Amino acid sequence: MFLDSLNEVQRAAVCATEGPSLIVAGAGSGKTRVLTYRIAYLLQQGVPAGNILALTFTNKAAREMKDRIRTLLAEQDSIANGSFRYLWMGTFHSVCTKLLRRDAERLGYTRDFTIYDTSDSKSVIKAICKERGADEKIYKPQAVLARISMAKNNLITPEEYGMNRQLLQQDREARMYDIATIYAQYQLRLKAANAMDFDDLLVNMLRLIDQHKDVCGQLQQMFRYILVDEYQDTNYVQYLLVSRLAEPQRNICVVGDDAQSIYSFRGADIRNILNFKQQYPEARVYKLERNYRSTQTIVNAANSLIHKNIHQIEKTVYSENEQGAPIRLCAYMDDRSEADGVASQIANCRCGYDDVAVLYRTNTQSRAFENELRKRNIPYRIYGGTSFYQRKEIKDTLSYFRIAVNPLDNEALLRAVAFPGRGIGETTMKKVSACGIEHHCAYLEVMRSPEQYALPVGAAIAKKLRAFAQQLDDLGALSEQTDAYAFADHVLKTTGILTTLTLDTTSDGIDRAQNVEELLNAIREFVAMRQEEGIDFTPITDFLSEVSLQTDQDEHLDDTQERVTLMTVHAAKGLEFKVVFIVGMEENLFPSQFCTQMHEIEEERRLLYVAITRAMEQCTLSFARQRFRNGQMAFNSPSRFLSDIDRQYFQQSSSTTPKPTPAPIAIPRIPSAINNQHSPITNNPSPITNAHTPIPSEYAEGSRVAHRVFGQGTVVRVYRDEVTENDKIEIRFDTVGVKTLLLTHAKLEKLD
DNA sequence: CCCTAGACTTTTTTT
DNA sequence: AAGTCTAGGG
User: Fold this and answer.
1) For strand C, is any atom closer than 7 Å to the CB of A685?
2) Which residues pair with A707 in a beta bridge?
3) How far is the CA of A422 from the C1' of B3 (A)?
4) What is the largest CA-CA distance in chain A?
């Protein structure tokens, strides 16, 4: 029997299928294993796959789990093998989307509703703020959206928001007095556009089951077994959703680790897991405390760190693996030498590239490592950052699909109008949108018949508007009859997207054209895949709904080459690597500069805990004494967390070299006391770079030139900036002082 | 209306 | 550094 490979607690947790269970799973304790075995076990017990709902937090986790179950069932040669694909498994958001599409009409949406991503949402908020004449310096779209999102995650309606003293007080401190109204308008706009944002997917799902008892009953009947991974990262709405669906059978199994809760910034509430036992008094609790992944040194070092947190569930994670190598700590002069040092350590590493990961706090840190790895011909794979579907050219192209499927999608319309340029400008679209809002109709509708809505535009523009509306309407009609691939191909060719992109022969422009080609390929593959599943007709709407929640771009990059993995610590959750480098261990970076309160620092500490426990054999921490950030050099002291880790687990330094050295050196002194004070970022006005080479030019040093804006001046020098690889000219203007301009762009006139 | 050059701002993590 | 915003010229 396949349960033999589990330890006792694990097996018990797998087999306790009836009633609520809480599995507290320490890092590396085989949590995913228990979940996958549990599902496989259920299937083997004859539970139909369609009755099982498994919720994960990221796409990656869902994919991983699916693969593992597939493998497990294949090994077992199980009869359950075939039904595997009827499993309900995915992120909260993707499962909710699928369920919502079936019953969207009940909530006043069509089944083709659009999912607005963050940039769509921000754009809506920006428009609202502008219309209201709000100060853009204070009402930053991102900040406003964060407030709205927070409210939604806690199921607070706009009306409730307006009456909530605590929220209003917080807003007052940020000098935003109007969030409730903006929130209300925002919701109206989305509804009118037949669109939901990420949070709406969850909130509306909850509304659906709360307001429609039949749907609720049906889903409760269907999901007889519910499993939730990473339960410590669920927010209030997710908690309510799970609670509702689990009634009345209460076959709910949640898995999590409070020590790995790292998503409170998006509303995750650790109390969900802490209070589970109170919510389900009959729940069985399983504690998985033995770590199978890492060496004792790594586990103990991580423990010593996490014990510095005040709030935690009592739990002893231990390893019976080898003691293993000590944790290494490397100090570098700057970010570049850090990347250089890590790359050279990777090059000399005896293990395969697949076994190595470089983990960082922020996505922007990846660049330095990319450069150094490329220099050494070390293949790497980068996760996160701006995903394929966020790129401008892709978003532009997708907006044509979006509007064809959902003519109310105003954000898509605004994008489509702007690219490729067709003589309909911002001013005109401002009028169109104002008109659409006033008449409570889609912007597209206004464009169809501008005169009917008394749009104040000239006849020529009205004609352009009508023509474009007609084109989009035609696409809409076509999208229903044509296969996704044929449709996309048609859109690319008839709207001028392809021609415009191929016109640009700069290297970036070629990239963009290729990206769009790749999108077309992805659609072709999608259609082919569906065909294999026996679905003959795949309209573009199916592709859109599949793609809108997809964030990992290079999933289909299934090459066989071994690669080093580069990603944020957040993205690394749930993964493991033999060798892990955790870089940028500096104050104001890790922990992030934005945490001020203790609970935020504790979350960052948990984040480092997650990072360290990804390592199986070797873990190396590093920091730089100075690094380029936002175009300036920043000096930060080593992270306070370094002194939270018990010294005995570090490699003891044999000699202390005070000299700056490019090679990793043992840090002479770990900051001893906890430094509660944030050391401010020091700005160095003149970065210590000597990468400016004089180049020959028609503008001699000391010669007089004239600029159309800055007036006359004297050339100081002309040089090549090795960092940016731009040729620059520095001029001392008579009236405005010294300016540095791009040589190729500056429009200068020589004076003799 | 559209483009360009220059100024100005932004700072985390993800669905 | 990189992206967004704006003024001004075409």
Assistant:
1) no
2) A711, A748
3) 14
4) 92
Window 280-339 of chain A: CB closer than 7 A to strand B: none
Give me the pLDDT at residue A664, please. 43
User: Chain C positions under 7 Å from a protein CB?
Assistant: 1-2, 5, 9
Is A367 near strand B, with its CB below 7 A from some atom of it?
A: no
The 10s digit of each residue's pLDDT in A167-212 is 998 888 888 888 999 999 999 999 999 999 999 999 999 999 999 9
The three-state secondary structure class of A643 is helix
Using DSSP's 3-state secondary structure scheme, residue A216 falls into helix
Q: Which nucleotide is nearest to A726 (CA to C1')?
A: C1
Q: What is the mean pLDDT of chain A?
A: 86
The pLDDT value recorded for residue A653 is 56
- Given 3-state DSSP classes, what are the helix, strand and coil percentages for chain A, each rounded to the nearest 5? 50, 15, 35
- Strand B proximal to A362 Cβ, under 7 A: yes
Active-site residue list of A:
31-32, 229-230, 260, 614
Question: Which residue, among A577, A525, A678, A122, has the nearest Cα to A349 in the 3D structure?
Answer: A577
Per CA to C1' distance, which residue is closest to C8?
Answer: A709
Nearest-angstrom CA–CA distance, A20 and A380: 42
Q: What is the pLDDT of residues A47-73, one digit of tens each?
A: 999 999 999 988 878 888 888 888 888
A628 touches strand C (CB under 7 A): yes
Residue A394, helix vs strand vs coil: helix
Residues 131-170, chain A: which have Cβ under 7 A from strand B?
137, 140, 142
Statement: the CB of A266 is under 7 Å from strand B: yes
pLDDT value of residue A674: 30
Q: Which of residues 74-93 of A touch strand B (CB under 7 A)?
A: 91-93
Residues A648 and A554: their CA atoms lie apart, in Å, by 40
How confident is the model over A398-422, as pLDDT tens digits? 999 999 999 999 999 999 998 888 8
Q: What is the CA A391 to chain-centroid distance, rounded? A: 14
**Do the Cβ atoms of A567 and A383 come closer than 8 Å?**
yes
Check residues A691 and A103 and name the one with the higher pLDDT.
A103
CA distance A478 to A618: 57
CB-strand contact A126/C, under 7 Å: yes
CB-strand contact A627/C, under 7 Å: no
CA distances to A177, A364, A735 from A707, rounded to whole Å, are 45, 35, 12
Nucleotides of B under 7 A from a protein CB: 1-7, 9-15
pLDDT in tens, A249-261: 899 999 999 999 9
CB proximity A630–strand C (7 Å threshold): yes
pTM (predicted TM-score):
0.84
Tens-digit pLDDT profile for residues A552-596: 555 545 567 899 999 999 989 889 999 999 999 999 999 999 888
Torsion of CA A727, A731, A736, A738, to 10 degrees: 80
Higher pLDDT, A713 or A100: A100
One-letter amino acid for residue A260 of the chain:
Q
What pLDDT shows up at residue A135? 82
Q: In 3-state terms, what secondary structure has residue A71? A: helix
Mean pLDDT calculated for residue range A87-102: 94
- CA torsion through residues A163, A165, A167, A169, sign: positive
Element (H, E) at A150: helix A141-153
